[in-house]
Amino acid sequence: MLLNTSPNDQFLQFDDIPTVLGLANVTKPYHHLAFSAYNVFTPRDPAFKDIITEHDLNCAVSSPNALIGSRDNPDPQHHSKGAYFEIYNKTDMKQMGLLPHFTLLGFSVKPMDAPLPGTLISVKGYGQEEEEPHLEWRVDFPSGYHLPFSVKMQEHSREKWEKLHGVEIVADFGEDKLDWEFCLDDLEVQFFKAENQEAGRPGLDQIILKDNYV
Length: 214
Hints:
By secondary structure, the protein is mainly beta. Helices cover 5% and strands 42% of the residues. It has 2 helices and 13 strands, in the order E-E-E-E-E-E-H-E-E-E-E-H-E-E-E. The strands form 2 sheets. Strands 1, 2, 4, 5, 7, 10 and 13 form a 7-stranded antiparallel sheet that branches. Strands 3, 6, 8, 9, 11 and 12 form a 6-stranded antiparallel sheet that branches.
């Protein structure tokens, strides 16, 4: 059977996830992805008054929600992964006619608050069953309050972030590389469906993808 692929873009804004007192877990799966060490949060929820500054209300580029991420284990003496999102279930994707990987197109990101001397945010891309990232890109935020930075992965890293199984994001604060919280929104990923090019051969690879599915 001859296969080709056609892309299906997903623009994830997390605004469809209800929060309680401004916080919630990310639905699993969420558009075929599982999120670890992330929480959905609503910056303008009254529960965050006097907890975050007015300079972090812009975390939600697409209001009302964004994600807040940090390491799963912030102890610098132990190995810990950063906030992570990955393919939730490869088998389910194949049954839906999707290839079990994605391309990372972009997102908006910023460190919380105004850390001194600054925060380095690292993005790492992993293929299937890879223990070490084969793609990595970093952006340095100097001290001071920031607007969310709109990252276009291919433009800024000069590499195409394709055939990924997972993406890790780490925010390092200061020379000791301490964990620092960051916010993420408007995550744009691209999935691919397998299409049967032979006439008269219906099957899963011919499923038409809907615009909004979980």
